[in-house]
Design goal:
The structure holds two protein chains of two kinds. Chain A is α+β, with helices and mostly antiparallel strands. Helices cover about 15% and strands about 25% of the residues of chain A. Chain A has a four-stranded mixed β-sheet with strand order 3-5-11-7, with no helix packed on it. In chain A, strands 4-12-6-10 form a four-stranded antiparallel β-sheet, with no helix packed on it. In chain A, strand 1 and strand 2 form a beta hairpin. Chain A is globular and about 80 Å long. Chain B is an alpha+beta fold. Helix content of chain B is about 15%, strand content about 25%. In chain B, the strands form four sheets. In chain B, strands 2, 5, 8, 11, 12 and 14 form a six-stranded antiparallel β-sheet that branches. Chain B has a four-stranded mixed β-sheet with strand order 6-7-1-13, with no helix packed on it. A two-stranded antiparallel sheet of chain B has the order 3-4. In chain B, a hairpin with a 5-residue loop joins strand 6 and strand 7. Classes of the chains: A alpha+beta, B alpha+beta. At the A-B interface, strand 9 of A face loops of B.
């Protein structure tokens, strides 16, 4: 009886110790939208690019913008929206989120963090944007207030409420199936036919933001016509932060380093 | 003391059986029929896709097809938006890489029958025998006897021939919306167009043979955009079966139209 009690007491103490140990971990810094300066969670930061004086438009050149992290757990997406007017022709939209996917491999083929002090740093400056485009009238969000999508619903002839995605930006995945999105720091693009004079809304939805500064830079280009056959990290430039650390080859930023090596 | 604990536990256990979720989804059971005058051998029947759709549209594509939602963007056709669906048979890896997307489960009674429609070379570049296939499959899957083969055996067959000479198979569409007035429509992909060799399970012997490949499986949008996968020679149901109120079984769908 005494032995049983001792074992039970020891078990309780051990369990309590293990549980209390868990309380020592502050998980917030692990979240992509945690702001260490204010100890708060960012999210729901929506930018209406139409209000910019230099708002991007068709063939206006590459626009460099910044968005902040989404609060995924709370469903508060951050991002930016832009409205363009249809030309009656096909329009291509390309967005390249910061900055370079697996730039560490480009810099150091050894893949060894000990010999490459930048390797552990560079993934922290990558983010992911998802691109949605549709008729502005079908957009469910509010520019500057809330990120939405282009899902609509209707009752079908059997009385069943159905949902339909009216997103015109159809990207193919690795298997050639419509509905794909690119991963971190990788460009997304699509082209679509427009009707002249009709408003179309371009939506950049933040999927993940760099955890080094909670700010995601992106390069955005809206072009008349179909998209180029090949689009890669170097098609649009400017989606990078200047690095404080010195980079190999005297480069000031990873995109320049990656693209110069890439083009060789 | 023990009885005081057991009583509430038993009550909780039995009360769970009384819980009714009232989900709108139900299982749909029926049979699919392939006319014997269109197919002589059940091994020639490809993977059969069955969907439950809002309605029927005989005009849009010039062959029997479900009603679709509006076309969006560069999609070649609108999404048929199925309520649910199922298949009769599925793409299975036939133990040889050369047979990816060539083998349907539920079609083969024996290894010899399997080899008749799926001739393949062994490691020496010679025509594989039934013994070669057996050895390869037991190595690849770790099976110990022919009873373990998931796509060989009389008890594995999907289709049986009825008195009229037609091929009949049971189907069950799991957890689907079944509104009265909806219809069952389907087709048989007889030339494996709906299979992707870039998808499916990764070679489960990769660590042994050092090869990376996928075993192959169907594309994910076949019921939504069936037109992408229906090609000449495929069998289609020309007369959809309409669902009745509160009836979830006893339906029959006939694949009586050949796309040409």
């Amino acid at each position: 009886m005494t032995t049983t009690l001792r074992i039970s007491t020891a078990g309780l103490v051990l369990g309590a110790t293990l549980l209390l140990g868990g309380c020592d971990l502050d998980p917030f810094p692990l979240l992509q939208n945690y702001d260490p300066d204010t100890s708060t969670l960012l999210g729901g930061d929506v930018i209406d690019l139409d209000e910019n004086e230099d708002a991007p438009d068709i063939d206006s050149g590459v626009f460099i913008g910044t968005v902040r992290a989404s609060n995924v757990g709370a469903g508060e997406s951050s991002g930016a929206t832009l409205t363009i007017q249809g030309t009656g022709d096909r329009v291509c939209v390309i967005v390249d989120p910061q900055s370079v996917w697996r730039d560490d491999l480009q810099i150091d083929e050894s893949g060894n963090e000990a010999t490459n002090p930048y390797m552990s740093d560079f993934p922290h400056d990558d983010g992911d944007l998802d691109l949605l485009i549709g008729l502005a009238s079908f957009y469910t969000g509010t520019p500057g207030e809330e990120i939405g999508d282009f899902f609509g619903s209707f009752p079908d002839s059997n009385g069943v409420e159905r949902s339909i995605d009216l997103n015109l930006c159809l990207m193919e995945d690795y298997h050639g199936q419509v509905g794909g999105t690119s991963g971190r720091a990788t460009p997304e693009w699509c082209s679509f036919e427009t009707q002249e004079g009709i408003d179309y809304r371009i939506v950049l939805q933040v999927y993940s933001a760099p955890i080094d500064d909670n700010e995601l830079k992106y390069a955005l280009d809206v072009r008349n016509g179909a998209c180029p056959d090949e689009i890669n990290e170097c098609t649009l430039r400017g989606d990078y932060d200047d690095h404080e650390a010195e980079l190999p080859g005297g480069f000031q930023q990873v995109e320049e380093l990656y693209c110069d090596a890439f083009e060789d | 003391m023990l009885r005081f604990c057991l009583l509430p536990l038993a009550a909780v256990f039995f009360l769970t059986a009384c819980f009714e979720e009232n989900l709108p989804q139900q299982d749909l059971d029926g049979q699919v029929v392939v006319p014997g005058d269109l197919v002589n051998d059940a091994r020639d029947i490809g993977m059969v896709y069955l969907g439950i759709y809002e309605g029927f549209d005989a005009e849009q594509l010039g062959y029997p097809y479900p009603k679709t939602a509006p076309r969006v963007g560069d999609n070649p056709i609108g999404d048929a938006l199925p309520y649910g669906g199922t298949t009769v048979g599925h793409f299975t890896y036939g133990c040889f890489r050369a047979l990816r997307c060539q083998v349907i489960s539920g079609r083969y009674e024996s290894l010899d029958e399997f080899l008749e429609t799926n001739p393949v070379d062994n490691d020496q570049g010679e025509a594989a025998s039934a013994e070669d296939v057996y050895d390869q499959c037991t190595w690849y899957y770790g099976w110990n006897s022919l009873e373990d083969f998931s796509f060989i055996g009389t008890d594995q067959l999907d289709f049986a021939q009825n008195a009229d000479g037609d091929w009949v198979a049971d189907f069950r569409a799991w957890h689907s919306r079944l509104p009265a007035g909806a219809m069952i429509w389907g087709f048989a992909d007889n030339d494996f167009t709906s299979c992707s060799t870039d998808q499916g399970a990764i070679n489960r012997r990769q660590s042994d043979d050092g090869n990376y490949f996928r075993e192959g499986t169907n594309f994910g949008d076949v019921l939504n955009f069936a037109d992408k996968y229906i090609t000449d020679g495929d069998l289609i149901s020309s007369t959809p079966t309409v669902l009745e109120e509160d009836k979830t079984q006893g339906y029959t769908l006939t694949l009586d139209y050949t796309r040409d």
